[in-house]
Specification:
This protein has 80 residues and is an alpha+beta fold. It has one domain (3-79): Glutaredoxin, CATH 3.40.30. Helices cover 44% and strands 18% of the residues. The chain contains 3 helices and 4 strands; from the N terminus they run βαβαββα. It has helices spanning 11-23, 36-45, 68-79, and strands spanning 3-6, 28-31, 54-56, 62-64. A 4-stranded mixed sheet has the order 2-1-3-4, with helices on one face. The chain starts with a strand and ends with a helix.
Amino acid sequence: MLTMYSTPWCGYCHRLKSQMDREGINYDVVDIEQDPAAAEFVMGVNGGNQTVPTLRFRDGSALTNPSIVQVKQHLATLSG
């Protein structure tokens, strides 16, 4: 499963969500302002910063503020 860590006001998050929707990529969204454990995860993979969007993939890997091309490439490496 793919998880997007986000905030309601993040423009980059809204753009990536729209792009993933268009590409048919399924994902769950977690608001780091409402989930302290999610905020801790995001800070853990981003040097202490709450940078969103941060995506966590089923293998535990993460990408921060990726392009849709990077998301698709990473998903392809996981399915191969």
